[in-house]
Amino acid sequence: MSLTIGELSRKTEVKIPTIRYYEQIGLLAEPTRTEGQQRRYRPEDVRRLNFIRHARELGFEVEAIRQLLGLAGDPDRCCGEVHDITKAHLDEVKDKIARLTALRDELEAMVTCDHRQISECRIIEVLADHRKCHNTQH
Amino acid sequence: MSLTIGELSRKTEVKIPTIRYYEQIGLLAEPTRTEGQQRRYRPEDVRRLNFIRHARELGFEVEAIRQLLGLAGDPDRCCGEVHDITKAHLDEVKDKIARLTALRDELEAMVTCDHRQISECRIIEVLADHRKCHNTQH
DNA sequence: GCTACATCCTCTAGCGGCTAGAGGTTCAAG
DNA sequence: CTTGAACCTCTAGCCGCTAGAGGATGTAGC
Distance (Å, rounded) from C-alpha B138 to C-alpha B136? Predict the structure, then answer.
């Protein structure tokens, strides 16, 4: 009924050192051990680790996941805090997209350079002189 | 005529420990020193550090910057390689935007949850069960 | 020349989120 | 009982900085 760390790893697609790391930082509880000190996991641990993995894939930071896991364990509570954490994360993602989009536009403008000599290369020019940027944000 | 590290820092808006770090990893050449071992910089160093800072702001990795600096020092060369490095970086940026956009859409769908109990919260549900994602990419 | 003190120096450690490797032990199948 | 895959702990490394301890230097004013 119990799983080795390797089996847990295969079921969740989380690498073994990562599982041990999550235990170390307290995201996963310490599992029971065999007499020889090998870890043995229960189905509950599979669910918890899947939750963690999925949240990481969605870009939540470990601290946020720690909070989400705490809240998830309290079924009667109102999910306002969960909503807030997710909203805050969403705002950060939007922010990142905005910054990367500006970056993309700048780089697109730069790569129009058509293989001249370095001394006339638009890319080098822009890098060397900030004022030649279209986007003056940064 | 020569600048202290503090003056260089103010002129380029690069923090002092970062300047020393760039020297350590070989992005900046070792400057001359006073008898008491304090660093003294020339105007050339200001230009080089500005280049580095700008490239970092545009998201280039240190290794890429190292290459760009090498190429920039050779004015007669064709800038094909510069173009390639920039294009590769641009592609990565585009990739990141695509992934973050999918993420954003997923999170947007999740935050529609209207403050129910945790046990019915859409966010918790989605996190706990991957199949409830709209985006099945990840 | 002397004092005060801002600025500089080196060195080490920490951030986040893992990942890799050394060197040794345990488990389960045959 | 032997084999060998899988496990264990511990340490160090990745990136690009950033912070702090503890001490030395440089410069301005007297």
Answer: 6
